[in-house]
Structure formats: structure tokens, C-alpha cells
Design a protein that fits this description.
The complex is a heterodimer of chains A (220) and B (240). Chain A is of the alpha+beta class and 220 residues long. The two termini of chain A are 13 Å apart. Chain B is mostly helical and 240 residues long. Classes of the chains: A alpha+beta (220), B mainly alpha (240).
Chain lengths: 220, 240
């Protein structure tokens, strides 16, 4: 598949300013983040690892990366925005199923990547950051709603939030229970979107290419 | 990221001592948001001020060692006016970092106290001398634009973008849309690099409907980039 590289095939040093990276956590779960070139620290992975766990650190070698077909100067802005998001949200982004679009309240001037939104997943976080710089990776409205396996996954996340140490607050858990049934953008689908040109990508092609991403992860 | 003057004017009038000042700076600059790049920005700013304003000569040996990899200063003899020259809100964060570095490395308490006192004096003296002679309203943010342009012109484009994003983000959070609109209207497009122009368009994108000047700015940037031969397909997609 074009634009998809393991780090053995193509080291991260060859990455332009920003890219998408994905790895397999277990046979049923993938994790995704944004690679960005930091002027002082080299290539870092910005990812929403879990509830209030926004990480910004060198990626492990297990990540496969995707170089989106976006002009380099725009990717440089993605990198700048990544750094800004880190500075503005130190550990403050909750995990939840809120939609990734319109993360800015134009009436109040406040970013919604924070307490005023219930939270994002690793995949919606990637979509939100790209959206914030004017780059839509996917056509949101083309995504299917309430896929049965997605609802199951959302319920499992809620259970994990309740039992994690420390557990998420009861208020937060209740808030995201109300979000069960929201559209889920799976990590491999978002990664697949980054292979599509021109953007934004439709669900159909992302679903098709997501299979290819999964295969690449098996061999990575 | 306000200008030095506006940042100071926004603060309470009295600072009793260096200790109070330090506490005040801590309150205003949460450690969580201290940006790593500020140390480099401040070093650059100090150097630039030093070169451009000899009468406020900066002593580099005193102010330069901000990086964790560099040796901290043994003494802290700083002319208050030199410090006032870079006390922006970002500068304050850097100062907090300097003070922490001094303390963390066991620099003697007299040196730390001297530094704090010098800062307190600088703040007080700047309050007594509000430098509003040539201060137009837009100058409050001209400073960040000028600094970003200087950083960009000297190859520190990523630091310039960091400064730009932080400054604009702060203005948006404070709903200072009119002020930001005025800054965009006054930008010297022909003198800004591709990266800075994209930075302005990108950082202001979330508030596009609140910035009446922005559509014209977008059109002018597009024309400028086309004229320069820097325009390519997809370069401005999504930034309208």
C-alpha cells in the first residue's frame, strides 16, 4: 500500500514534518497517534493514550507510519499545532466518544479539547488535531452509525474507565455513557484515510484500506 | 504574549519584594505550561535586544545559561532595565524557569535573591515609566508579530510558529477578536515567509467567522504566494 511504511522500510528520519502512526496493541485493538518533527527533540509521537494521558514522546519501533499526501508546509503547521496542543493541554484531555469536529467554540473563543467536551479516543484525537489546522482526513458524514461491535467497544471502554486506577470520575463516566452509540472512527480506518488522495476520505475506501493496514501491522 | 508594557500594566500595582514578585510570577505562569522553547526564544530575544539597543546592554553571561545543558550562572548581577526589556508574559515564564534552574542547581541563595530583587526593581521602574510614547493599540501584539518575524528570518521558524500559535491562541481564549482582526489587517504580507503566512491562516482558522478581515487576508495571501511562485495545489485547502 502506498504511503505506508514500517520503520525498517523507511526510518522516521525520512518523515516530513508530520505523519500518522499506528500500532497493534493486541489482536483486537489498535492505537494511533501523530508523528511530528520537533525542532529540539526529533520525531515525537503525540497520542491520547488513555483518560488524561496525552503523551508526547519518541515512538516505539512497532509503529507503522503513513505519510499523507499533504504539502510539506501544511504538515509543518500540523507539527506546530501538535506542540501547541501539548503546551495547552498538559494531561488534560479526557477519554470519551465525542465527535472530533468543531473542537472550538466560536462564541466563547475557547477550545473544546478539554473539560467542555467529554473526551476523545486516540483516533478522534488525531482527526481533531488535523481538523484544527484545516485538514480533514475523513468525510465524517460518510461514517456508519451504531455498528454493533462499536457499541460493544464503547461499553468496554466505560468499564475500563470505571475500573482503572485511579478510576475516572463518576460524572465523567456518566457523561460518556450518554455518548454510547456515537460514531466510532476506528484507528485503522483513520490510518487508512491518511493513505487516500485527495482528502477527505470516504468511509468506503477507508474500510477497504483498513484491511491492508491490519495486514501490515501483522507483519510489522 | 503581550508587549512588555501591556503585560505589566495588567498586573496589580504593588510588588512588595522580590519574593512577592516571584510568587506572583509563579501564579501567572503555571509550571505546566512553561514551554520548552521559551528558553531559546528568550536567549534569542536577549541577544537581539543587546545588539539593537546598546544602551540596554545585556550581559549574556548572566542571562544566556537557560538551557539545562548549560552551566548556571554563579552570580546574578542584572541591570533591572535589561530584564524589563524582555518581561513579556512569555518572558516571565522563562524567568520562572531561570529561577528554578538557579535553585535546583544549588546556586547560593544570595544570587537567587539578587536576581529576584533585580526583577522586582525592574517591574517597579517600568511601572513608573510607562513607555506609551509610541504605543499604538495594535502594538500590544505587534511585538509577537515582530518577534516571530525575527525568529523566522534567522532560521528559527519553528520557534516563530510556537510564538505565533501561543499568542493567537491566548487572544482567542480571551475573545480578543477585534484586536486580532486589526493585527491581521496590518500584517505586511509581502514581507512574511510562506511558513508564517500559513501560520497566521492556520492559527486563526478556528475563529474564522469572528474575524471579518480574514477572508480578504486569505485572498491576499493566495495572490502573494502565486506571485512568488510558492503556491501549489492543496497548499491552502481548508484554510479559507
Amino acid at each position: 500500500m502506498d504511503r505506508v511504511f514500517s520503520q525498517q522500510e523507511r526510518p522516521l528520519s525520512e518523515m516530513r514534518w508530520a505523519a500518522v502512526a499506528i500500532k497493534a496493541v493486541n489482536p483486537n485493538q489498535r492505537h494511533i497517534g501523530i508523528l511530528h518533527r520537533d525542532p529540539s527533540s526529533g520525531v515525537l509521537l503525540l497520542d491520547l493514550a488513555w483518560h488524561h494521558q496525552l503523551r508526547n514522546a519518541p515512538p516505539s519501533s512497532k509503529y507503522v507510519w503513513i505519510a499523507p499526501d499533504i504539502p510539506a508546509p501544511r504538515l509543518r503547521q500540523v507539527a506546530a499545532r501538535c506542540r501547541q496542543v501539548v503546551r495547552a493541554n498538559p494531561g488534560a484531555i479526557p477519554y470519551g466518544f465525542s465527535p472530533p469536529n468543531d473542537c472550538f467554540d466560536e462564541q466563547t473563543g475557547k477550545f473544546l479539547l478539554g473539560p467542555t467536551r467529554h473526551g476523545l479516543t486516540c483516533a478522534t484525537f488525531v482527526l481533531a488535531v488535523f481538523q484544527l489546522v484545516g485538514l480533514k482526513l475523513i468525510r465524517f458524514e460518510s461514517w456508519p452509525t451504531e455498528r454493533p461491535s462499536d457499541c460493544e467497544w464503547q461499553q468496554a471502554v466505560i468499564s475500563a474507565l470505571e475500573s482503572s486506577n485511579p478510576p475516572a470520575s463518576p460524572e465523567h463516566v456518566q457523561a460518556i455513557k450518554n455518548e454510547v452509540g456515537n460514531v466510532r472512527f476506528r484507528p485503522e480506518e483513520v490510518a487508512a484515510a491518511a493513505t487516500v488522495s485527495p482528502l477527505p476520505a470516504e468511509f468506503e475506501i477507508c474500510a477497504e484500506r483498513a484491511d491492508g493496514i491490519l495486514q501490515r501491522l501483522e507483519t510489522a | 504574549m503581550l508587549s512588555d508594557e501591556s503585560a505589566l500594566e495588567d498586573e496589580p500595582a504593588s510588588v512588595e519584594s522580590g519574593k512577592d514578585l516571584f510568587q506572583q510570577m509563579i501564579r501567572q505562569s503555571s509550571a505546566d505550561v512553561v514551554q520548552e522553547g521559551w528558553s531559546r526564544i528568550v536567549r534569542f530575544e536577549v541577544k537581539t535586544v543587546s545588539e539593537q539597543a546598546p544602551r540596554h546592554k545585556i550581559q549574556p553571561l548572566t542571562l544566556l545559561p537557560v538551557s539545562p545543558r548549560q552551566k548556571p550562572p554563579e552570580t546574578a548581577h542584572v541591570d533591572p532595565k535589561q530584564i524589563a526589556a524582555f518581561i513579556t508574559s512569555g518572558g516571565r515564564k522563562a524567568v520562572v524557569k531561570i529561577l528554578r534552574a538557579l535553585r535546583d542547581r544549588g546556586v547560593n541563595s544570595d544570587a537567587v535573591r539578587l536576581f529576584e530583587e533585580a526583577l522586582a526593581e525592574a517591574m517597579q521602574s517600568t511601572r513608573r515609566e510607562p513607555s506609551s510614547k509610541n504605543l499604538r493599540p495594535a502594538n500590544q501584539s505587534d511585538s509577537f508579530v515582530d518577534r516571530a518575524r525575527r525568529l523566522d528570518a534567522t532560521g528559527r521558524t519553528d520557534l516563530a510558529l510556537d510564538l505565533l500559535y501561543d499568542a493567537i491562541d491566548q487572544m482567542l481564549r480571551e475573545a480578543r477578536f477585534e484586536e486580532l482582526d486589526a493585527i491581521i489587517a496590518g500584517l505586511p504580507i509581502a514581507e512574511c515567509s510562506l511558513n508564517l503566512l500559513l501560520g497566521f491562516l492556520t492559527a486563526t482558522l478556528p475563529a474564522r467567522t469572528r474575524l471579518p478581515v480574514r477572508p480578504r487576508f486569505f485572498a491576499e495571501v493566495k495572490t502573494e504566494l502565486q506571485n512568488r511562485g510558492e503556491f501549489e495545489e492543496g497548499l491552502l485547502t481548508g484554510l479559507e
